[in-house]
What we know:
The protein is of the alpha/beta class. Helices cover 41% and strands 19% of the residues. It has eleven helices and ten strands.
Amino acid sequence: MTATLLRTAAELRARARTGRRAVVMTMGALHEGHATLIRTARGIAGPDGEVVVTVFVNPLQFGAGEDLDRYPRTLDADIELAGQAGADAVFAPSADEVYPGGEPQVRVTAGPMGERLEGAARPGHFDGMLTVVAKLLHLTRPDIALYGQKDAQQLALIRRMVRDLNFGVEIVGVPTVREEDGLALSSRNRYLSPAERRTALALSQALFAGRDRHAAQQALRARASEVPSTRARAEALSAIGESRAAADAHAVATTAGGPGAVRAAARLVLDEAARLTPPLDLDYLALVDPSDFTEIGDDFTGEAVLAVAARVGTTRLIDNIPLTFGTFGAAS
């Protein structure tokens, strides 16, 4: 399948629409993670719908000293990958097309959630991101827009903007795509040297350590809840040799766990990575409520996000995984 390159909003408006339009917004340098988004969009739009991929490196969301100038621009390869993944069109406007007359005077403000974590590390980033997303939603007029869960705070803010400002579009989050070794796919991974890439694996390893700690705690608590409390039933367990296992399950399940244990398990991996060559320079490790990205307490129940950001050399990377607290099921 060949994707049509469109450079202007007028060209996009001129396209006939016969079904639902699904849009995947990118800054280019497409990889398998983007391809997964496009394939998902194709499945949602169906054979009668249309999939549009936007490619625009948005200057508003890059701060001073960030990598706007060296951000990879690979439009020809992007068009090829987008077409192979099922896109009908690639909308790659110029900065003048998106921001006629220069940077906009009126912008979308991310609010308090946009000042936490990524927002604190990159002041103004989310205001710039939401402004361009709002503009691209107006320009492309989709029925559905898809975003990767790797940028969890971005996804949460887009959902909040769409809800708060009554955008008539459905927002779909698509799970993070990873390399075989666990590293989350990112356009910035190409900046990493082999040694830096080995260090960068600590981001996903820390998240997996936190997830595994939580899953083990949940499994042990579920096991302990099944252990009989009466003497007669305890004696019955002892007769079949399970009393020691039951006691061990009780002992471990009643030790410190929950969010604090998840953070501790993840931080242990990150602390070790800080001593590698080259080292990992941690920006933050956070376990947050996805509704507002505030840190959760030890009594928290419900969906949460374990998020990490760090620099390896000159490259800044982010990653996250979802977790669920308050049930005996393993973390999602």
